[in-house]
Design brief:
Structural class: mainly alpha
Shape: globular
Distance between the termini: 40 Å
Oligomer: single chain
Order of helices and strands: HHHHH
Number of strands: 0
Amino acid sequence: MIKAVVFDMDGVLCDYRIDRRLALLASWSGQRADAIHAAIWRSGFEDEAERGAISADDYLKGSDPQAYRRLAAHGHA
């Protein structure tokens, strides 16, 4: 049984452009793109998610307590 499939998205399966992702997240959330970047990428949240420290379900639901602490630390929760 296959338990996991790993895809290398950035520059392999798609042309990942963080500036476009940040612009969309900013338009959907009403937050500034630089604040979103700080809360997700510069805080280490995305790295932890990629290492598996945060479950995929929690990441997608935004229900991980660590995520909320990071956003709150940046003034966005």
